[in-house]
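pls design
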């Protein structure tokens, strides 16, 4: 009868756990110290500007050992016999690495990986970084002519530069609108694109623009630049909208608001519509800093022109009038004409 309790006791005895796997061997301790700031920052570097990264290495070993190169990043080289002699205990040695950025662009990180003839040492990684400038560059990709009066012809320049010693060649790779003139000027490694705005060539009702220009270069990594120029035409009296467009067949009455930029009262000396299909409901009135003229659409004529002579304008102000009949079909093979952008302004529907 004593066998049963003994058997139960054996079953309740915990089974010993298997022995834990020993941890992997730790990384061998370093036997050098870097005496220069790490990593080495080379800053902004030209596309062919060879730099030098310098690393100060101090031995903390108790016996001599040799260093050897295991791996180099693209563009790096160790010249001479800098690592030929063993590093003595306590010795400080400067290791100079040549950095050639040819073929690289932007933010670049690289390193030299060094090993030793001592199996009790780890490998050492000497890091550096730099920003490689593009071979061809422009001083700005977007510029503005700001506010332009109708009688002005303002100019601006985009300045290009090519680094590396080769001459720069620029070619205008986009078509210019009639109101914009361009001239390319070359001077060795630099070049300018000079632009001139001619407001007198603008279509009536056009008061602002954003020009997109493409300039090709002979730099292999920067073959094409996209440039942007914005401008805005201003004059003593501004019409809102600058173009009056009827798009709904049920809408026959819209209005144009005239506002003096300086806030002073002005007089509409003469107002008339050139063309058919529209009539002017309001004639010239007394002086005011803000005046509203109502235009009625009387037919299906597509275009006409509202011509205004004001006391503070040297040349007449022209406001295009258009009716875009949604039922009208464009000629075969012709693309439909989109509605011009309209400025915000008062609207009257009838």
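designed seq:
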């Amino acid at each position: 009868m004593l066998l049963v309790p003994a058997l139960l006791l054996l079953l309740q005895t915990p089974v010993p756990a298997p022995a834990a796997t020993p941890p992997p061997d730790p990384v061998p301790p370093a036997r050098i110290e870097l005496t220069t700031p790490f990593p080495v920052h080379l800053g902004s570097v030209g596309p062919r500007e060879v730099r030098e990264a310098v690393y100060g290495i101090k031995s903390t070993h108790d016996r001599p050992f040799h260093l050897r190169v295991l791996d180099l990043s693209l563009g790096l080289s160790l010249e001479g016999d800098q690592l030929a002699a063993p590093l003595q205990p306590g010795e400080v040695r400067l290791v100079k690495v040549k950095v050639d950025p040819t073929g690289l662009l932007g933010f670049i990180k690289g390193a030299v990986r060094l090993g030793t003839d001592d199996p009790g040492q780890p490998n050492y990684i000497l890091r550096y970084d730099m920003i490689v400038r593009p071979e061809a560059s422009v001083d700005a990709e977007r510029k503005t002519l700001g506010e332009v009066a109708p009688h002005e012809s303002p100019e601006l320049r985009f300045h290009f530069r090519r680094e590396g010693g080769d001459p720069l060649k620029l070619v205008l790779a986009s078509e210019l609108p009639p109101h914009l003139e361009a001239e390319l000027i070359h001077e060795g490694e630099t070049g300018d694109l000079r632009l001139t705005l001619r407001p007198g060539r603008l279509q009536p009702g056009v008061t602002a623009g954003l020009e997109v220009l493409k300039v090709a270069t002979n730099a292999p990594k920067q073959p094409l630049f996209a440039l942007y120029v914005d401008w805005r035409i201003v004059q003593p009296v501004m019409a809102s909208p600058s173009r009056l467009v009827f798009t709904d067949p049920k809408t026959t009455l819209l209005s144009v608001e005239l506002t003096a930029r300086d806030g002073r009262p002005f007089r509409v000396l003469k107002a008339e519509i050139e063309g058919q299909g529209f009539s002017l409901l309001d004639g010239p009135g007394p002086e005011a800093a803000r005046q509203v003229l109502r235009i009625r659409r009387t037919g299906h004529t597509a275009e006409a022109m509202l011509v205004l002579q004001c006391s503070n304008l040297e040349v007449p102000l022209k406001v295009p009038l258009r009716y875009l009949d949604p039922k009208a079909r464009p000629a075969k093979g012709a693309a439909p004409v989109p509605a011009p952008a309209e400025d915000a302004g008062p609207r009257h529907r009838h």
